[in-house]
Amino acid sequence: MVVDGGTYSPVPTDLIVRAPKVLLHDHLDGGLRPQTVLDLADEFGYAGLPAQDAGTLAKWFADAAYSGSLERYLETFKHTVGVTQTEEALRRVARECAVDLAADGVVYAEIRYAPELHVEQGLNLNQIVEAVLAGFSEGQRQAESQGHRIRVGVLLTAMRTATHSRQIAELAVQYRDLGVVGFDIAGAEAGFPPTRHLDAFEYLRRENAHFTIHAGEAFGLPSIWEAIQWCGADRLGHGVRIVDDITVEPDGSVTLGRLAAYVRDRRIPLEMCPSSNIQTGAAASIEQHPIGLLRRLGFRVTVNTDNRLMSGTSMSREMELLSQAFGYGLNDLQWFTLNAMKSAFLPFDERLTMINEQIKPQYSALKAVLADRLTGRE
Ligand SMILES: [Zn+2]
Fold first, then answer.
1. What is the reported pTM?
2. Which residues are close to ligand 1, an ion, with C-beta < 5 A?
3. 237 CA to centre of ligand 1 in angstroms
4. Whether residue 259 sits in one domain with residue 180
5. For residue 277, which of 255, 303, 249, 245 has the smallest C-alpha distance?
6. Which of 28, 180, 220, 312 has its CA 20 to 30 A from that of 369?
7. Alpha-carbon distance 156 to 158, whole Å?
């Protein structure tokens, strides 16, 4: 019997972990290890953590994130940001982030955070950026010594509810050759349209710099439209609500509105985060997540983690959930991964090298492993 290792699903967990993965949307303050939150709170005298051991704390984060209450969800970030107000702490969480992602098979990641949230104890923005970059360098070296190669780029985020976006955009340009690869805005979407920060985006475009915008998560099409047509976003953070511009008839035929057609035609990358979207109510379940429809229609969909601590997830876990829900095989996981690599804020030649020398050969090898396993030779 000849078995196709590319289409078989669900893909076994160990092969998903081994598969090279590319992550474009992950928040540094949403990915701390529970034990690190405890250690840092201890070290820097941060009071008010809701639990005193790692297991209970991890559960508290997940419960709060799934509670459906925005206040409780935001409280989780109050703690992770609260314990990362020193250079030492920022360096540690960045280092551990790189190590954890590498161990999960991530070969390239863009990690974002908002420098303006880490100034409570007197750090200036440059100290913050440099501490995080140093942490990622250490993490990449540590991962390499453990046999995992990962490359990490940084996105500097400005809070859309605040007024520092131009300053943060300038910071991103200042550090563009030192590991910062782009810019983002995040935070409450309703009432804070991307055009509030037009000054920052116009500046970045004049500087030939890259940026993504959280849009189309909590708020719908107008936010996506502004992000693309007014601000000039290279990518959309989430963008799930683009489905509001797609009509599926009972007979299965599909009609795209003008905005959805534009997003697909221009290959605008959608940074989708399935588990996170369920927590925030942007999707009802993995099975009903718009990623299934958008993948079928050929949008440039990518798979991401958003907040690994709050969602209790990893890149492998997100891939596994999708493989189970939609019957995706290694071919599909490779497609998501290539989409992400093509959409990375890295120079074109470097993206191509990673695709041709790392991602494609490794997926081919895994498909052969799976085919052998299925035919009983392994
Ligand atoms: Zn996000």
1. 0.96
2. 306
3. 6
4. yes
5. 303
6. 312
7. 7
